[in-house]
Amino acid sequence: MGKDYFAHKAGTYDQGANRVDNIDRIAAGIRERIDLRPGMEIMDFGSGTGLLLERIAPDVAQITAVDVSPSMNAELEKKRGSLPCALDMVQMDLATGTLDRRFDGIISSMTMHHIADVPAMFRRFHDLLKPGGFIAIADLDKEDGSFHEEDTGVHHHGFSAEELESAAREAGFEGIAVAPVSEFTKGERQYPVLLVTATRPG
Questions:
Q1: Of 25 and 7, more confident
Q2: Which residues have a Cβ under 8 Å from the Cβ of 33 and sit 6 or more positions away?
Q3: Would the CA dihedral through 175, 180, 184, 187 be positive or negative?
Q4: What is the pLDDT of residues 151-188, one digit of tens each?
Q5: Residue 57 DSSP symbol
Q6: What pTM does this model have?
């Protein structure tokens, strides 16, 4: 699995007020743009401690949490009993492996900048969705590299809207929309966060 970049911070990850505020806005943005339904089975890519999925859980039937970090998964496991939907946890690197199942939707927050080959990951998302399934992927707008103060396996300093739209389009998605959904505050700086939504053709 390689290095667990979040081992030293998993236990206190949920205590970051700016991080929680950012996730609140991302979850609200997903609800505004996606028709979540009670029978849905969705995947949370880069689920971490479950900050995003626990906000989406009341709206769906099951969430499959996929994350490479054992320490973050351990924190999510503690929340299992309090979630209002079924939870399946998979510890794996989705960049090198895949799942033998299909989902109604895929959500993700602040994970794509850790992925080396972003177009390939969008193609993987397309393959993992049922026809008509959606993606709702949030990540940093293009930034100058100052967002990350330590090495957590970062491959990109955010993405332009054009980059995200292109990756989704080339993967075969339709109905693509990219728009600001939040701003992450770090010190005196504000870092815009984009949300890309799209659908696999039915």
A1: 25
A2: 136, 177, 195, 197
A3: positive
A4: 566 666 789 999 999 999 999 999 999 999 999 888 88
A5: G
A6: 0.90
Please give the pLDDT value at position 22. 93
Q: How far, in Å, CA of 35 to CA of 80, rounded?
A: 24
Q: Tokens 């973050």 sit at which residue?
A: 72
* Structure tokens given for 173: 């998605």
Name the residue among 62, 17, 32 with its Cα closest to residue 44: 62
Question: Could you give the count of Cα atoms lying within 13 Å of 19 in the half-sphere of its Cβ?
Answer: 15
DSSP letter for each residue of 136-181: EEEEEBS--S-S-SS-S----S-B-HHHHHHHHHHTT-EEEEEEEE
Tell me: domain 10-199, CATH 3.40.50.150, correct? yes
Q: For the purposes of burial, counting CB atoms within 10 Å of the CB of 179, is it exposed (0-12), middle (13-18) or buried (19 or more)?
A: exposed
Dihedral of alpha carbons 32, 59, 27, 151, sign:
negative
Provide the residue ranges of all domains of the chain, joining segments of one domain with +: 10-199
User: Which residues touch 165 (CB under 8 Å, ≥6 apart)?
Assistant: 176, 178, 196
Give me 156's structure tokens: 């990109």
The number of residues in the chain equals: 202
